[in-house]
Amino acid sequence: KLCILNTGNKPASVRLTIYYSDREPTGPYRMTIHAQRVRQVRFNDFIDPEAMPLDTDYACILESDLPVIVQFERRDTSQAANSISFMMAFPLSIS
Hints:
Structural class: mainly beta
Shape: globular
Helix content: under 10%
Largest sheet: 4 strands, antiparallel
Distance between the termini: 28 Å
Strand content: over 45%
Number of strands: 7
Mean pLDDT: 84
């Protein structure tokens, strides 16, 4: 799951591209994060332009027209004792 925070005064247009180890990238998946709001998005809910395959390794690049704060959450349900991990995204400026 992604948690995206827009602390600004304008809506942020966000695009995600998903990369895989064994197939071509998919995307962009587009969304709007309203001003001074947070939006939580599950990767399983990405349908358009195509649904993400299950049980496949992936990574993503998130691009936004305005600064946003991104937190990634991963829930491991492969064991009886579930675990959750959180990570902050690494900011990168591409010219």
